Amino acid sequence: MLSGLELTISLVAVFIGSTIMGTVSFGLALVVAPVLILFLDPQSVVIIANFLIVILLVFVFIKVRSHLKLNEIKGLLIGGLSAVPIGVLALNIANPVVLRISIGLLILGLGGLLLSNTEIRIARSKHAGLVFGFLASLCITSLSIGGPLAAAYVISQKQSSNTMRASLSFFFLATYIFAFFLYFVTGLVTIESIVNTGLLTPALIAGFLVANLIVNKVNETAFRYVAIGVIISGGLVLSVREILAL
User: Fold this and answer.
1) What are the residue ranges of helices labelled H in 38-190?
2) Which residue, among 222, 236, 205, 238, has the nearest Cα to 22 in the 3D structure?
3) Hey, which of 109, 126, 178, 243 has its CA 20 to 30 A from 217?
4) pTM of the entire structure?
C-alpha cells in the first residue's frame, strides 16, 4: 500500500494527470503509470490507473455528453470492445515488450504526422475506426496507456474540441467497464488496489476541478496542439520505459 513519500509523489502525479485528462479526455495514465510503477507491481499499476480513469471519465462525459455523435465512433467502439478480452488476458499472463515498443513508436509517428498537419489517410478510411479502436483498447486494458491511438483517430476526423472529448470519454468508458468486469472475473482486482485508488482519488478530483477552469479558455487550435502534445508524450513514455527495461 502506498504511504509516506510514495503517496505524496503519487498524489502529485495524479493531480497533474487528472488536469490533463480533464482538459483533453485522455492522458492520465501517461503521467500516473510511470510514477506508480516505481512503487507497485505492473498489474496493480494498470488496475489503479484504470480505476482512476473511470472515475474521471464519468465526470468528463456528464459534462460533454450532449456533444456525442455516436455514429462517428461506432467503428472505434466495436474495435475497442473486441480487443478487451485479449488485453485482459495479456495483463494476466504476459508483458509483450516488443509489442509495447512498437506501439510506442507508432504513437510517436502518428503524433508527428498530426503535428505537421499531415492528414493520416488511413484514419479516415472506412474501417480505420475498427483498427484504431482495437489497438487503443488492447493498450488500455493491458498497459493502461492507449489514449493516444484513439485520440489520433478522433483528431483525424476533424471533430470540435467538445465532440472530441465526448467521443473519447464515451469510448474509454465503454472499454473500461467491460475491462473491469473481466478484471474482477480473473482476480486481478485486489483490496490493496481499491484502497490505493481511494487514497489517490482526492488528487484526481482536485485536478478535474482545475481542468474545468482551463478547458473553456482553450481555443480549438490550442486544444488540438495540447492533445497532440499528450499523444507524443505518451509515445515517448511508453517507448523509453520499455527500451530501458530491456
Assistant:
1) 42-64, 74-93, 97-115, 128-143, 147-156, 161-185
2) 205
3) 109
4) 0.72
